[in-house]
Amino acid sequence: MRKQxxxxxxxxNLTYLEGQQLLGDILENDLGSKDHHEVIFAVPFPYLIMAxxxxxxxxxxFIAAQNCSNKKSGAYTGEVSVDMLDSINIKHxxxxxSERREYFNESNQMLAEKLNLLLEKDITxxxxxxxxxxxxxANTQNDFVETQLKESLFHLSADDLKKVVIAYEPIWAIxxxxxxxxxxxxxxxxxxxxxxxxxxxxxxxxEISILYxxxxxxxxxxxxxxxxxVDGGLVGGASLVALDFIEIIKALK
Length: 253
Ligand SMILES: O=C(CO)COP(=O)(O)O
Description:
Layout: E1 4-9, H1 16-27, E2 37-42, H2 48-55, E3 61-65, H3 82-87, E4 92-95, H4 98-103, H5 108-120, E5 124-129, H6 133-137, H7 141-153, H8 158-161, E6 165-168, H9 182-200, H10 202-207, E7 210-213, H11 221-225, E8 232-235, H12 242-250
Parallel strand pairs: 1-2, 1-8, 2-3, 3-4, 4-5, 5-6, 6-7, 7-8
Helix pairs in contact: 1-2, 1-12, 5-7, 7-9
């Protein structure tokens, strides 16, 4: 079975102490014990080492960065490089979140560069894609997402592509309380898989975990995750509440 993943994206929330408390409350329950399950916490940069220390002895729990630089090193004030993440043993990194694409002008090409740097260090990229509302309303979301995938991922070898986790996050569903319907999510996840299959073959495409993100909550995770091509979720708001995120972890197939 493909890896089923519950990933928390804390974004720019919580103080250090609040983050420590939240992690402690969730980890007390040690829910990620099934072999094909992974629980990932994408925490702010200053909390990475603390979070890593809290999870090192636990199976199937991982800590992710929320971003990395597309530059290797040098005079880029305020940036955090892949080599830095590697040097503190971080094994996952979100890239291409729609908030970064929108507010920090991240292009598909820039994300291709980040992917290359991450894969060189054997860090799993969690690659986000997804369409804005006007594209959904024009019913051109399939082409839009296909272009994001092609321009950022298709230079990779099949072996490298297999190391990538994809997160489909329709922008109109992020932080809005409005989720894609299970049909809309399944349809897009199947489309993403078919785009990958056309390029790399069905065997490769079938190995790739595709997460859904956008208003995943404790009370809808079961239904969303039940779809055959949905392999878990990338969760914002509900990942900041221990009991809610615990329910979301429990909803993994
Ligand atoms: O952007 C998201 C996760 O990366 C989704 O955020 P919400 O779960 O708050 O809608």
